[in-house]
Request: fold
Amino acid sequence: MTLEAVKFAAADNLWSAIFPELLLGGLALLLLALEILLPKRLHAVIPDVAAAGVAGTLIGMLVNLQFTTGAMTFNGLLQHSTGGQLMRVFFLLCALLVFLLARVSLARQPMPRVEFYHIVLVVTATMMLLAQSNNFVMLFVALETLTIGLYILVAYFRTSTASLEAGLKYLVMGALSSGLLLFGIVLLYGVAGSPSLPSHTVEPLNYDELGRFLAGNPHNFLASLGIALVLAGIAFKIGAFPFQIWVPDVYQGAPTPVTAFLAVASKAAGFAVLLGLCGPGGPFASYGWLVTPALTAMAAATILFGNLAALTQSNVKRLIGLSGVSHAGFLLLGVVASSASPHAIGAVYFYLFAYLIASFTVFGVMVHVAGADDSDQQLDHYAGLARRNPFLATVLAVGLGSLAGIPPLAGFMGKFLIFVAAFEAGARWLLAVAAVGVVISIYYYFGWIKAAFFDTWVPPTDPAATPTGTPPGRTVKVTLAVLALLSIGLGFYQGPLGQWLTLR
Amino acid sequence: MIAPTLNAYLAISVLLFAIGLIGVLVRRNVLVIFMCLELMLVASTVALVAFSRFNGTMDGNVFVFFILTVAAAEVAVGLAIIVALFRKRQTTAVNELNTLKN
Reply:
């Protein structure tokens, strides 16, 4: 390669386009430096620095939000689409809320703190890159950095057997899914670069080039095998049936802030990838004969399995994990509809934001009710919460109501928009399954609300059995109140955000 | 000497992948499962290099370096978790690691 060629390639590296990710990376390093440089009594400011940095990046992102469509940088590794910008904001919000939960949760454990914030920052930056990736090398490297970061976070409470065991299970399942995904990518790479096939390409790892090849060979066996393996790998990450077996165990064992991160951010990252690959204009669009039936069956099975399995749970972390599986099913319904309905992608983004707001409301309450043993959070512990702490109980009811999809909360609007898109796309029987799923989900969500409001608290025979919990501080109270109000507000009035998302 | 063909390389790759996948599903020792997972990544690497060589596209060779790096990071984190868990439970058999239950 000559110097000229290198210069030509480098001219495409628009570093300012990934400025938010670079900021997060720099911030992560700064935290480690601060831990060494600051005296021990000042270490308490490090989480504040992390939160302030993320908040600053978020504000900067929102101020400079431009909806440039499809500008490519780094030789086509990244594509800066509108959806990518939205997901960046989404992940920054997640990181900020995870920091808030971590502050409460980590305070109860004899653990180093700074590394937790460091890894969350790195993982957030890679998720932001993942949502904008336009090349399979970028996709794989970003996805792996994300997953390896999450292995560490899941096993973070290393004095707890539950946390370590959850880490191991997540490691085995995550590595297995990466293996499947990688083999799928390799098959696609090999078949798309094969000179014996029509419209083969010299850059088979690029989404657009691959899409052009797949459109030219719509019934290639190896390519469809590759697509199936890639979809299986992503289905593991989003916890879709039949790849959801890891979800309840890992969600139970992981520290509560990490459970929230897995449930919201990691799932959203999976959906960002799925929309990029299978959505309109994605490389897999011409394989609708394979992708649509596969995702349809997966969505139906995921909704039913998640809701039915959640019915019998008594541990709230397992319950929220399995209900998260069913939410992945509803989102898959939106992805399926995206090939035929122009409103579906906006509906998926709206659903993700409504899910973020409601989930973090619920996790915010869970963190405060939990005791020293993070994996042991039973429904019984919520008995009499309304009397002990009316604020937490009210916020919990709003969050759970939104997750269940009770009108007029934001979760209802999310489900409604997805159902409208699915109706437009003509997925009638899938809609029927989803409606059954919603009805089942109301049962267990209201079981939780009932435990908090109507179960009278009986003094336990063993006083050590019920954790005392932590009273919420002022920042947390304000944040939880804002989140609950957002859930209510977005249900009544979607404003320019909803209008822009759905009526594009 | 027999010149190796693309199909021969792919057969090896698929064989390695199958051994890895079956190993993950069947074996009961965490360390063996972990080795099988790495075998799956290596199988992909073999196919990648073969495709890259026979199709004349260079991306595959570059991709291999990324995969090796990722696999190394995964091994570092994975072994750390396994060692920490072994210290706690004194076992590496997956059917004895069953603290998490409803």
Observations:
- The mean pLDDT of chain A is 88.
- Strands of chain A lie at 71-73, 78-80.
